Amino acid sequence: AWNMVSLKMQKRLAASVLKCGQRKIWLDPNEITEVSMANSRQGIRKLKQDGLIIRKPDIIHSRARVNRRDAAKRKGRHTGTGKRKGTSDARLPVKVMWMRRMRVLRRMLRKYRAQSKIDKHLYHSLYLQCKGNKYKTKRVLMEAIHRLKAEKLREQALLAQAEAAKARAAAKRAKRADRAAAAAALAGAN
User: Fold this and answer.
1) Minimal CB count within 10 Å: which of 11, 125, 161, 190?
2) Measured CA distances, 109 to 71, 125, 130, 141 (Å)
3) pLDDT for residue 1
């Protein structure tokens, strides 16, 4: 009986009524005659209520295995040389690494300048040195900044000492000149 009756139209109408594709429509094989009698949407709706036409459930494509593997990959599994297809530059480009590094270092320089830890002149020279690949990490750059600031302070202290020594020497000279002048005046009076 199944081969005799063509249920093409019923399937098409059912797909339209149930808002799904024809592959999702199940027609009861035991009630073929009744199904074949339905030649309108109304008839199809009636059969649906009676349970002779059913929309099949969606086919599940589980991601459980994928999720499990991804979790393992996050731990570093399945990423050895045998699993790699692209070159190391294709997997994580050198340029991307460079951009990340530059952005980190430049952000740090901007922060230091904003906090007045470095002046604009030191900022500029350090900026160019970063660009010239002198500092690889934030830590190295920070140490360089501390070193440069210490040197600057030391130079300022030395300058101040030198100025003080000059002032003392000038005072001494003036005193000596005054004394000599006084002695000359005394000699002239005698």
Assistant:
1) 190
2) 37, 11, 10, 9
3) 42
**Whether 130 contacts 109, CB under 8 Å:** yes
Residues 109, 118 contacting (CB under 8 angstroms)? yes
Helices and strands (DSSP H and E) totals, the chain? 8, 2
Residues 181, 174: Cα–Cα separation, whole Å: 10
Quick count: other Cβ atoms within 10 Å of Cβ 97? 11
* Residues contacting residue 108 through CB under 8 Å, at least 6 positions apart: 138, 141, 142
DSSP 8-state symbol, 132: T
79 alpha-carbon distance from chain centroid: 21
Record the tokens describing residue 70, joined without a space: 């991804």
Token pair 């969606």 is at which residue? 58
pTM here is 0.61
Report the pLDDT averaged over residues 133-141. 97
Q: What is the rounded CA–CA span in Å between residue 21 and residue 5?
A: 21
Q: Within 13 Å and on the Cβ side, how many CA atoms surround 20? A: 15
- Please tell me what DSSP assigns to residue 73: H
CB 8 within 8 A of CB 25: no
**Amino acid (one-letter) located at 133:** N
Q: Can you say whether the dihedral through the CA atoms of 83, 86, 88, 92 is positive or negative?
A: negative
Count of other CB atoms within 10 angstroms of residue 59 = 7
How far, in Å, are 5, 53, 66, 83, 150 from residue 29 at the CA level?
Answer: 11, 10, 38, 50, 91
